[in-house]
Amino acid sequence: MDRLEAIQNRHSVRQYTSRPIEGKVLERIKEEVDACNREGKLHIQLVTDEPKAFDSFMAHYGKFTGVCNYIALIGKQSPDLDERLGYYGQRLVITAQQLGLNTCWVAMSFGKRGVRRLTQKGEKLRCVIALGYGKTQGIAHKSRPMGGLYEADGPLPAWFLKGMESAMLAPTAVNQQKFRFYLSGDQVKLQSTGGFYSKVDLGIVKYQFEVGAGLENFHWA
Is the pTM of this model over 0.85? Predict the structure, then answer.
């Protein structure tokens, strides 16, 4: 499937089978992690066959089971770190979906103490992405009406509508979709309207909008 199909088919999954990630699928995920780190100047790390991070009270409270693989979203402290981690983290999520894997963004429901050992001096662990072969494919989350998520100073071009449709499928903290787009000609601005992990959400939503709209059709304001 292409990236847009992956976006449309991807849903959060919390229960996983014991099937390991291996072979060409594992190689491809590693390659994409390396590419995201180079492009985003990050220290994202893939951890496989390690169940301890999700063998905690918080993980069980979050109804996670069978999680033995995850992507740790790490980078050097900077004002735009959260947004970059959201953007490149979602790129990895969609790559995983294309490869037949399932995922779930996790901000609180994992054992942070053990995962923090992956960080180096001056770096910050923001959240992780559970990864593996899900027992189900998950279910779609409810979405707010599109009209409440943008403002425009003129007619809406087809590329903008496609971008909005893609953005509305983006996972956000507690599914609150606290973001707003502003369209002026071919200029698009994206802002947070508050909430938990709002800057991470902006990065996730930005990535999905770009896939739907096509970067050749607009410029970020």
Answer: yes
Domain range for 165: 146-216
CB 124 within 8 Å of CB 154: no
Residue 221 lies in a domain: no
Burial of residue 135 (number of CB atoms within 10 Å: 0-12, 13-18, 19+): middle
Residue 160 belongs to domain with CATH number: 3.40.109.30
Name the residue among 94, 109, 64 with its Cα closest to residue 204: 94
Number of domains in the chain: 2
Tens-binned pLDDT, residue by residue, of the chain (221 aa) = 999 999 999 999 999 999 999 999 999 999 999 999 999 999 999 999 999 899 876 666 678 999 999 999 999 999 999 999 999 999 999 999 999 999 999 998 898 888 999 999 999 999 999 999 999 999 998 899 999 999 999 999 999 999 999 999 999 988 899 999 999 999 999 999 988 899 999 999 999 999 999 999 999 99
